[in-house]
């Protein structure tokens, strides 16, 4: 057993405190990872604050994990001590259902095991990456290509795959017009990845505050959704819209921007229902869809794609003592574009 240093919260309104957690003894296929960096995802805030239902506290969030292998179980074949590796939003699944067999473990019919706030096959609560070590079965560990620094690799494990997967599934590429709604942690990755895939990318953001960044990340145009003429001008334009916003939007206005057969994919998860008018879909055979992270194989593809195209998230590295402040800034949308905790400061 390894005792890991961690940062935990004890309740919805509590601050982070120092904690120690036990990581399990290595089973035959387990890997012990010394965590170097952990990204702060908006989901961490929602879970820590209890927004998405009851949570067993104390809770150690973190599902954007990058580190180094320091020990392996006797039957591990995919990784060895010293390898640079990552862990994303899930650490296990049944492995037997048709979705798991298809490499879509995130949609496991028995439910995947989330990296934190879940329960593993031993009946123990899972605790995430705001900690010095984690033990994960090798099938849920990703290899991080040498050219991606570990601090920048961390956010790829959630923000990267959450945007890569729908862009890949709905075939963003040359000749396709893609709009990205929202320019936060997810949105900025969607812009970079869609551009690298060869699509023509437009950002739809509330204001033009981040326009320069958006264009630098690869967008060819950038519009403010606070201006009504944006919707008039862009009506019927896009083959694919990736909505990264987790607040309630007038989804019908966004659907009106799709071309014939166009698809709007929600990756943001607003707490309130979105009201869809059937007539926003019917006349142009449009689709309204959702997508959740990606499978393990696809996550590896995404990491390799980012290395090949020299793409990485734009990050701000913080110390373990700055997590509370970072959470406040995430809520105020005051981050460019992802906070990453330097775990060595724990
Ligand atoms: Zn996340
Ligand atoms: Zn399954």
From TrEMBL:
This is NAD(P)-dependent alcohol dehydrogenase. InterPro entries: ADH-like_C (IPR013149), ADH-like_N (IPR013154), ADH_Zn_CS (IPR002328), CAD-like (IPR047109), ER (IPR020843), GroES-like_sf (IPR011032), NAD(P)-bd_dom_sf (IPR036291). The keyword Zinc applies. GO terms for molecular function: oxidoreductase activity. Residues 11-341 form the Enoyl reductase (ER) domain. It holds the Pfam family ADH_N. It comes from Jeotgalibacillus terrae. PROSITE patterns: ADH_ZINC. Belongs to the zinc-containing alcohol dehydrogenase family. Keywords: Metal-binding, Oxidoreductase, Zinc. Gene3D superfamilies: Medium-chain alcohol dehydrogenases, catalytic domain (3.90.180.10), NAD(P)-binding Rossmann-like Domain (3.40.50.720). Its EC number is 1.1.-.-. It is an enzyme of class 1 (oxidoreductase). It comes from the Bacteria. Its cofactor is Zn(2+).
């Amino acid at each position: 057993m390894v005792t890991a240093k961690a940062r935990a919260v004890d309740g919805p309104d509590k601050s982070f405190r120092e904690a120690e957690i036990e990581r399990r003894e290595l089973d035959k296929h387990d890997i012990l990872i010394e965590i170097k960096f952990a990204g702060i995802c908006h989901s961490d805030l929602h879970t820590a604050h209890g927004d998405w239902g009851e949570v067993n506290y104390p809770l150690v969030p973190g599902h954007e994990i990058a580190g180094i292998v320091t020990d392996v179980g006797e039957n591990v074949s995919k990784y060895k001590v010293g390898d640079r590796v990552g862990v994303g939003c899930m650490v296990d699944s049944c492995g037997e259902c048709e979705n798991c067999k298809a490499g879509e473990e995130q949609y496991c019919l028995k439910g995947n095991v989330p990296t934190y706030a879940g329960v593993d096959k031993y009946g123990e609560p899972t605790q995430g990456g705001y900690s010095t070590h984690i033990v994960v079965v090798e099938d849920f560990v990703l290899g991080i290509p040498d050219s991606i620094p570990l601090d920048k690799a961390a956010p790829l494990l959630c923000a990267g795959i959450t945007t890569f997967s729908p862009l890949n599934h709905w075939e963003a590429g040359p000749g396709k017009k893609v709009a990205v709604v929202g320019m936060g942690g997810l949105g900025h990755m969607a812009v970079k990845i869609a551009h690298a895939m060869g699509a023509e990318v437009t950002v739809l953001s509330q204001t033009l505050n981040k326009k320069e960044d958006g264009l630098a990340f690869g967008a060819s145009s950038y519009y403010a959704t606070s201006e009504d003429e944006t919707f008039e001008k862009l009506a019927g334009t896009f083959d694919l819209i990736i909505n990264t916003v987790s607040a309630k939007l007038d989804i019908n206005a966004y659907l009106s921007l799709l071309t014939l057969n166009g698809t709007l994919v929600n990756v943001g998860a607003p707490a309130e229902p979105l009201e869809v008018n059937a007539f926003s879909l019917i006349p142009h055979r449009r689709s309204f869809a959702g997508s959740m992270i990606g499978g393990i194989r696809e996550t590896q593809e995404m990491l390799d794609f980012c290395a090949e195209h020299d793409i990485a998230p734009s990050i701000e590295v913080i110390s373990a003592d700055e997590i509370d402040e970072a959470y406040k800034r995430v809520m105020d949308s005051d981050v460019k574009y992802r906070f990453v905790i330097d775990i060595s400061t724990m």
